[in-house]
Structure formats: structure tokens, C-alpha cells
């Protein structure tokens, strides 16, 4: 079975501890992972054995690793890259620093160090240009506080009321960037030119500060040449680098070589390759001044050819260098400023773009400009409301003001309680108010952001009429999806960036209409508040300053270490203004933040509640401390089907009893007073037994549907049978949901309706011992699962498998769609006590004909002339007739896994029931695996079998034959009969070597099969086919294996069929006369 430990003999003849990875039955080979070496091998099945118990004692000491900070840019790795990595790592002693473990990927991310502590990650990443910093990642689009640059790949988190210690340390390691706002004009000098589309300017805004910094750096670094030298520079390191002119400049390391390092000078834009000894540590005092070299592109121009010519670059360099130019910023995108350059001192044409046009080196390429001169005019804006954090739907409804027109709206992500999500934290106001993003949607958001930058880069402002829009962030100049939440007196609005959670004030001229294509992805940020284990009904908690700091440290450490956070949704709350919060806990593999903050919450003195009032919109979720691998006594309270039913834990019986008493008392009081209407979906609802229970309204139209959360039933309820839950009922609200959603494990998808109905009537109100296999939905143990191996022969009749094979008739419980919650504690009848925990159900052997019919029905493949399939040949009968399997092995893998799991445990064949054609499963002697088969005949203690999924026959010991169950015949038989098209026995016969030749041509080869004709043989389809393998037509290749029949061997009086054949041949020949 896939994933099982085994012993495998490798190509060197040695045995290795291994894990089974894949099975290829057609080729009789398997793929195994040698766990002590991390290598994979393809081995024949005869070289695989069960792993003896004594070989489990030694732990596995290999780790599945990935280079930290390396990215394949979505195109995979080339052979040359893999070969280069092998030269760096194989058979060498290295030091591995484990940065973090990705639980979801099962991979350890590590930084490797080789000889002289050289960083192998950087060495590989620099040479192959695959360092994380080389590609704009999802984090590059994230909204950052001021001071962040693109070189910061840690998760950006904004925090009101100060910056935590980690962030202070982080910001001092990075250099801020001079910000040139859109529409501004500056005096600047061009410091370095690559071409007119890529050059670096330096404004005069910090000219004095730069002179002072250069003087200080000269004094600091020129005096002691050996001081402050960086021994092992890394890509992305800010440093003081000695240039060719002998002066030290601020720089960033961009590439690492053997003896030299490539750096870019952040205040001038040019790059140089310098000796390692010329890289010195950049002191903190030299990091305060922003990077002064700003990358620019000349607006409104493009080269006449595919790229700028050398003459164009030389002319542009000549007209810009050593001149004080006027730089007007038109657009800012992807860290580049699109600018208009003019030379105020020029005698003739002052616009440098026009000079390139006149010289014939460039052509017009309109950079669409933002509208100017409208800042004092009245700009039409959509109606807005004061934003309070309400959901997107509520915002759109409130803002539209009831106008009946189709507006652009964003979809919102909603999660049910108990959901466990992989998330990143995108924005923090406080532990009471922060935003998360789903990790699984990171790639989709990255693509969306890339498309938005491309689409809106050259867009023009147009007045908006909708609140859903695209907005340019005022700090980084990138475009984001946004909602307008408030107008201001100035031409500015407040917008919520829906994919990150931040609210900012932006100019109305930085808004654009949102395109339809950008609406399909739901808003990626969802609002959260930390779960308070002490007071679970509170959404606003008075966290201590220490708790706040620990929360920020927890999130920041996880982000900087690229650790994915697990987010568990415990409840959903709304304020009176419809602010929605998901009450959550965040976890790493090592820590739960809510658990860590419990003591801090307990030590916090109670505070009188203030501000908006919050109410639950769901009841609280709880794991009830259910652990994977443990057994629990449960009561089944409601059944939808085998994959969806509800259980209560028997150990919670006292809690449930106390809850019901409190609900009954409160509802009696509520019925005697006038209760004000309360928004939300939570309520008390009267069940059919006349008692009140906690409920949640699931639908109001066409009728009111209420889900009874502690039992799992959903019923239609009239309005008079509903009561609102008052705010004072905090004790009742604090009790978590008692009904646990469960699913039977290892149940096939296509369970018949009869089995689901039988499970409902037989298990409801039943007491069971449940084995928890994994959590999410709880999976019940195989003892209960055995109920569904029952063949529905007669109503209520089953076979109890034991030494005497006693047949027991069980009266099914009365069929009920909805069971009274109070009846969950009813006593079970005697028959249920007999069967529930001890009974194992199997099909009756006397009804094997039913299974035979089912298996035959499953074998009716649909074939038609002209159909094309990719196949493998699994068995050859003769040179012309053979059996094929589809190359799509998904169903075959399911069959193999199912039989490997259940074959040994299946029941032995009853000798009295053996008959030709009876289906069974059998152990094949060559590979010791179980296969489906049909009985051909019986001789002594052996039976002759036909393996229906492969087409071969074999003699098997009767002791290796088992009964087949209905579950094992759900998949169709996989082998189908074929014959090569175009061969006629009247034309000749096959050579003795023909069968071997067909085997040589087709063995283990992927074949392209074309169906030429379909007939029936023994009520099974037979296909006359044309086979092709890698361009070779097998039918044609086999013609040299035939022996022509001489004319005198033809009988004097041919049959009617032969006469028809001859007639056809004569007719065909007459065409050529």
C-alpha cells in the first residue's frame, strides 16, 4: 500500500529501508524511497519485502530539505541547475542551519554552509539568478509602512502606537528611499545611464546631507584599511564599498563571485565588481539618509527598434550628464519613475524626448498622464458611509443607497467555525483587530497584482460612480483593489485595501474604475480578533502592553522565518454597526498565541466595557480536547449520510444537561415578557418534542430553517417557535457547540442510497466507541465502517461473522429524518446492544451470483470505431490477440490500494459456493499482491483463475482465494480484449516467433490504440485495433511474421464466408486492370 514501510533491494544488490511511493502493476515494478539516504528507485516487485519489526528501532535520520531563500520563478529547475547543485552538495561535508519546517509541504528549509563557511544558498542563487530577492514576490506587493524597501522580504506589518523591538531592528538594517510624489517637479542630475528607459537620477533635495555623509565615510574607512571588513558578504547586504576611484560609497551587494563581489552604489545607480576586501560594514549612522539614486524611464518615448541602439544611448548620455535638469514625475510603478526631462539652460529644444525624436532614434509612446489642474474643482464621487469595518456586502448595500443598478462589488470570504486555515497576517491594528490572508491564495493574489500594475500603469483619471475601485497607494505607488469608505472635504477619500486590510487616505486622482476581470477573486484579507480563552464571549479585550508586544513578536518572528500560521476560527462576531470579526487563535508548530497569553489575560484587572457592543453571530467552536489516535464514547444524534453525521461525546453529558436546564428556565422567562428584536442568526428554537434548544437560523426564505447546533438536526420552524438570545445570556453563549460533525473513514464515493438509509435508521441514538483518525471532520473507526460492507439482501437481515456463522435478524429502528434531541439519551434496544460494537458484516456467499452479475455489468466498457486510447498491453494470448489496460491508471491504483488494504482480512471462499465464473480476489504468487479474478475451474486444492484487470490466467492455491465484497467491484474491470486489425487466417499463418516479436515490440511501451471495429466474444467487447508506438505502426511491423498460404492449399469448395472474401478481393483487383 502506498506509504507503507518495506525493505527494497536496490540495483547494487543491497537491501534498504524504504517507503512505497508508487505502484506500476502493468510493469510489475514499484517506486520506493530509501529513507536512510533520501534516494528514489524503481525496483521489481520481487525485490520488495515487508519490513521486519526489528528494523523499525533505528530512527530515520534523513531530512527532506529545500534551499532557503531560493525560488524557481514558477518554471521548475533545468537539468544544468540540478547538475550544478549536485556538484555543490553531493559527497561533501556541509553545515545545515534549519530555518523552519513547512508542515504543509513536509519540507525543512535550510541554509547550507560549505568550505570556509561559504553560503551555498547564496552561491547557487547568485549564479542561477534564483535568489528570492531577484523576483517580485507576493510580499513585494504587500503594503508597507514608510521606510520599507523592496529588499525587505519579511512580512510587512503596520502597527499603531509604536514599533516593536523586532521592527526597530529591522528598519535600521534597511535604507529608506527618497520619495518623489506623482506630479512633482525637481532639480536633479543624471548620475548613471543604461539607456533612455533605465537611468538613475539624484535630486538636490539632500545635496548638503550627502556631502557631509561622504566626508564622514572617507574619514571612517580610509584610516584603517583592515577594520570593518565583511568576511562573508551576502546578496542584499548594505555595505560601504570601495569604488575604482578609491573612495568609499554606500552600496548593496547584488552578486557573489569567487574572488569578487558585484555591488550597486545606492546613491549613484552604477554597479562595479570589487574585491572582497573592499567590502566594509556600513555603520548605523550612515543608514539614516535615504537612497538617493532613483531609477527613471523617459516618458512618452520608445526605441525605433526592439531595443535602444548604441548611438541613441550615446546621444542621450551626452545630453543629460553633468547638467542640472528639470525632472517632472508622471507615473511611478515597479520602483521606477516615468519622468519628463527638460534642460532649462538649453539654447534650442529643451524637451530631451523631442531631441531623440528629431535625431530619429525614438518614436512616440504616449505615457498616459494623470489629469492635472483639477485639485480645486469639485469632483463627483460615489456616495459613501462612515466606514466601521463592516463586510463588503454591507458596505456596498449601504453605499448604494438603494439605487437599483448593477454595481461592481467584491466577493467576501466567509468561514465556518472550526475551520483551520493556513494564513499570513497582512495588517495589525491590535490583537483585537488584525487582518489575515490565506496562504493557498497567495499565487492568485500575486498574479492579480501583476495584472493590475500592467493595466493601470498608464491609465487616466475618470470620475467614479462606484465604491469598488482600484486605488494607488500613497506610499509605494502601486495599484490595489479598494473600497471607498469615506469622503473628505479636500479632494481625498479614505479607502480600504481589501486584500490587505489597511485603510489609507488617497487623492481622488489616484482612483480608477475597477475592471470586471479584477472582481472574480474574493477579497483576500479577512478581519480577526484574538480568542480570549478566559472570556470567550468578548471580542474587545483589555490586553496588557506585554501581551500586545508578545503578539507582535509572535507574528513578526513567524513572518521573518517564513513560518505559516495555522488559524482556527472559534466564532464570528458582529457589532451593532455590522463590524464582522473572526474570533481566532494563531499557531505555529511550536506555540499557540492564545495559550501563551492566557496568564497575561488572567492577570489583567477587569475593565468596564466601553465602545461598540458586540454579539456572537455563531456559537463557539471547541475541539473538546479530542485527540487524533484516541478513542471516544459517542452518541450519534443526527445522520445525513455516511460522510455527514453528528455525534455527542458521552463525557460531556453533564455539561449538556446543565445547558438544557438553563435554556429551559430562560425561555420560560422570555415567553412571559416582550422581547426587543435582536439582529443576527442565533436563537432559541422549539423542537418537535416541545422543548427549547439553542439554534442557528440557516435560511428565512421560503421558510425558516433552524440548525440545532448541539444535536445536528436542521428543521423548518415557524416564527412563533423562535426566541432571540438576550445579551445577558453569556453563560449559555459561552458553552461551545456540542454536536461534532463526523464522517466514516475509508468509505467509497458511490455508496448506494440504501446503505445511507440503513445507516441512518441503525445508528441514530446509538452508542459507539469512535477511533479518531484525523481531525477536521472526525472519522469513526472501522468497527462502525464494517456496517457498510453489508449487501442489502433482505430488510434487516445481516450475517454476523463468528465461529458458528449465526444469522441474526435485526429489526431496524423506525426511520426518522429528524430525531428529537432529548431522545439522544434514550436506552438502546437489545438488538442494537448485540450488534453495534461486536458485529462484522459480510455478504452472504449464497448470493455470489449477484456479485458476478455486478462484476460483469462493470466490465461493459464503451468502445466505438475511431476511438483513440493510450494503453499498455498486459497479457498476450497469441501473436494477434492480447489484453490491454488504459494508461490512465487512477482507477487501477484505487483497486490496488483497496485490495492491499483489505485483501488479507477478507473471508475465505466457501467450497460449496465455488462455480465457474464466480468472482473472487486471489493472492498472486509472483508478487504476493491481491487481485480481482474469476474462477475458471477447480483441481484438487488449486483453482484456475482469470485475473479480470490484467487478462492473464494462473493456478492459485485455494487457501489464497478470498471472497469478494460489493465494495471491491465498484470499479470496472480494467483489461479489455483486442485483436490486431488487418490479418486474415486465409492469407497465411503466424511464424512461431510472432508472439515473441509482439512482446518485444510492445512490452512496457506506451501504445496509441485506435479502435477499428467492435464485436462481442462471450458477451464481452472485443476490439479490432491499430497500434502505434513512437511512430512505428505495430500492425505493419508484424506483417513480416506471417507465412503466406499457397494457392493449392485452398479447398475446392470454399464456404460462403470464404466466397464473400474472395469476391471482395476480386472486385478490388479489378479496379487495377
Automatic annotation (TrEMBL):
Protein name (record): Tudor domain containing 6
Tudor domain segment(s): 1-58, 232-289, 462-521, 676-732, 913-971
Biological process per Gene Ontology, one example term: P granule organization
PROSITE patterns: TUDOR
Lineage: Eukaryota, Metazoa, Chordata, Craniata, Vertebrata
SUPFAM superfamilies (alphabetical): Tudor/PWWP/MBT
PANTHER family the record matches: TUDOR DOMAIN CONTAINING PROTEIN, TUDOR DOMAIN-CONTAINING PROTEIN 6
Pfam families reported in the protein's UniProt record: TUDOR
Superkingdom of the organism of origin: Eukaryota
Species this protein is from: Neogobius melanostomus (round goby)
A Gene Ontology cellular-component term: P granule
